[in-house]
Amino acid sequence: MTIVAPTPRSAPAPRTARTGRTGRTAAPGSRRDPAVDLVRAACLVAVVAVHALMVGVSVTGDGVVLENALEAWDLFTPFSWVAQMMPLFFILGGFASATHLRRERGRGVRGPEYVALRLRRLLPVPLAAAVATTVALAVLAAAGLDPELVAEAGWRISQPLWFLGVYVLCTAFVPLALRAHERAPRRAVAALGAAVLAVDAIRWVSGVDAVGCANLLFVWLLVQQLGFWLADGRAPSLRQAAWAAAGIAGLIVVGASPANLFEALNPPTAALALLGVVQLAAFAALRHRLAARAGLPRVRRAVDAINGTAMTIYSWHMPVVVLLAGLLLAAQSAPGAAALLPAPLSGDWWLGRPAWLVAAGVAVTLAVSVAGRIERRPRGAAGSVPAGRPGAVSARRAALGVLSGAGGVLVILTATGALWAWALGAALIAAAVWTVSPARLRPADQIAVAGAVAATGPATRPARG
């Protein structure tokens, strides 16, 4: 997932250090890891492809049906064992966060200012997509489209948003979590692991699924913590990964986790944390080969292009794919157009999936080429101001930004993507962006920041993700 771009490239620091079980030598001052970049880009492409496959539109005797096409697939569960990439996203996000925060500390950035800096990178692109989705749904409703179909479209578009809400919350904990890791890394992981198991146990014994919602935070904080270990050059051994895989199997057998690891996302279970251990060990074992492949010129250009607009791809791919399905639906009245909408999972549907994935990829690429300007543009005050200068961002403002941004996502999801929820959610995300904006600094602080910029020289573009 993560599905945001990594930190900029820079020359390695002159001294090196062994990085433990990953078996590589890392430069403490280096800001990009080619293997991490490659896997992040590959995971993002995989997420777009899976979501595109899930979009099923067909016309039955009861009318138009918009559904998750893979839910009834007999092989959906084993497919989830290899296609569930969210733990790896959070691991790589933790790696990037640890690397970024440690660098920013050297510039005097405090925890609240780091969180505000991250929000200024994470939220503007999803905000633009949320506003566009709100407008599109409003136009469809005003045009007289079936309200149930509009509501279903709003729900399908909203489903990937859970990642943004959780990622914002995990980002808010990065300064505290990284300090805990640096003081006692094993204890930090053990504490989060105990919390995850406690939530799962209470949920299992009580039968109240809502209890598991607490693991929307604990599971992903734990997996993010594994990314801090990766940033230190440490990873589980393959033997430990085998034990983790056995743990996943055990949880499934006793009924503590769904066998389908996509279903295990809602709410997340300990199986996903254990899957993170497996994926981290596999990544560490393949890291040298991945880095070599990432160094190929064509691969590097593709990876840079994907990671450079990662938030745009994440934010816009679902609206674009649903819109593409809607266009096929609108074209059904043309001669021969019925073949464009075969019943999901039918033979014709599977035969058409390669063409559908290509069409979805082209549509997303075109959308990103336009909407990506928001992500690629110079950040001005939001990106170049040394955020750690005194008075720049208070803890209160950072907290309000986090709560408003995550709250906007929560509103949309809890209302299952209703039009009013999209409008309110977009407003809350906009409030979060406004809350952490450097433009809200007092004039005296602006003068101080300007002086700091002049004293330190041009600032490095901050990390994404």
Keywords:
single chain; mainly alpha; two-stranded antiparallel ribbon; 20 helices; globular; disordered N terminus
Question: What would you say about this model in short?
Answer:
The chain is mainly alpha-helical.
Task: Spell out the blueprint of helices and strands.
Elements: E1 17-18, E2 25-26, H1 34-54, E3 55-60, E4 63-68, H2 76-83, H3 86-105, H4 111-122, H5 124-142, H6 147-158, H7 161-172, H8 174-183, H9 185-206, H10 215-231, H11 238-253, H12 270-294, H13 297-308, H14 310-330, H15 347-351, H16 353-376, H17 380-384, H18 395-414, H19 419-435, H20 443-456
Antiparallel strand pairs: 1-2, 3-4
Descriptive notes:
Keywords: Acyltransferase, Membrane, Transferase, Transmembrane, Transmembrane helix. Residues 1-29 have a biased composition (Low complexity). This is Acyltransferase-like protein. By secondary structure, this protein is mostly helical. The chain has one domain (17-456). It is 67% helix and 3% strand. The strands form two sheets. The protein has a two-stranded antiparallel ribbon with strand order 1-2. Helix 4 packs antiparallel against helix 7 (161-172) and helix 11 (238-253) runs antiparallel to helix 12 (270-294). The chain starts with 16 loop residues before the first strand and ends in a 9-residue tail after the last helix.
